[in-house]
Predict the structure.
Amino acid sequence: MKKTILITGGAGFIGSHVVRLFVNTYPDCQIVNLDKLTYAGNLENLKDIEDKANYTFEKGDIVDATFIDSLFEKYKFDGVIHLAAESHVDRSITDPMAFVMTNVIGTVNLLNAARATWKDKYEGKRFYHVSTDEVYGELHDPKEFFVEDTSYDPRSPYSASKASSDHFVRAYNSTYGLPVVISNCSNNYGPNHFPEKLIPLMINNIKNKKPLPVYGKGENIRDWLYVLDHARAIDVIYHKADDGETYNIGGNNEWTNIDLVHLICDVMDKKLGQPVGESRNLITYVKDRAGHDLRYAIDATKLMNKLGWEPSVTFEEGLEKTVDWYLNNWDWISNITSGDYQKYYQEMYS
Ligand code: NAD
Ligand code: DAU
């Protein structure tokens, strides 16, 4: 029987890569992309697959329980891959409640709808919750890495909301037997990344010769993974993990922010045909993020050994592909920064 999978947040950065991978890899599977099209959701990300027979878009809000119940009633999903979220740490510091609503309440609405639809008949069913390494807090000891049973210690409203949603997902597994899996991934980068996040923000500002804001001293460390490698990991985990399992996903690729910004500057200088060193002059140290986590670093051994996943691109290749993508798709970023795409799709689906 043809399976129907709900992917939430499929118009966002990571979600759009997951939707494309599933639509192209599983033509016998119906993929329903549910997205509210917030400032971060952009259907232009999926232009190349929007006419495929196995793809459907539904505009809606996961916070609206009545709507979510009716969507599950309509499609009787076999599986859910849940990515929809408020995802930017800085926004969570100024508006925590938006994160509680979407990330916590929205997730519980989906869990309730899955439970009501599957009615304890869980054969062939799966609820996959996409989470983040930020739930583990921050690392100080350079020899330490986040593993799947590292204790939770979220330190921002964003990570607290994601940690809360992870706890609900696990609680629905323990209490009701809901067949869930969770993955916790490190920082992603790649095409279609919204230009409020570090890498696309730097690319955009370098192109526009605007200051490059580095928080604090630029000493914080992030572990960067190419977005398609995250999407590939989600595919493998969705299809091969056992119910109730958790997997960490990461590329073993740690950079201090300032080293990374230097690298982006140098790659951009070469691509723009300007003297190497020119963009570094734009670097501006600014006030640190409140509660700024010092270091994230993922140990993805379980995923590599048990399910055979490994990253497919090196950071140097991935960063070059990313810079090329932005420079070749400048309309994408111009539309986002002008808000035009949002007006267009909001009108189209209102
Ligand atoms: P994003 O902000 O680019 O996209 C989020 C998407 O969710 C958008 O399309 C938005 O319109 C949609 N959305 C937001 N609120 C919604 C609501 N109430 N109802 C329906 N749709 C809604 O986020 P992203 O960076 O692609 O992250 C996707 C998921 O992966 C998130 O759950 C995030 O926590 C997780 N994650 C992200 C990273 C990363 O580095 N970006 C790393 C690990 C985990
Ligand atoms: O680790 C996974 C997480 O990675 C995801 O769960 C989040 O959704 C995603 O946004 C990302 O969170 P970060 O806070 O690590 O990403 P961001 O791109 O906002 O910042 C990366 C680092 O760069 C962080 O240490 C803060 C710093 N920074 C960020 C911005 C936007 C700057 O120095 N200047 C900036 O202007």
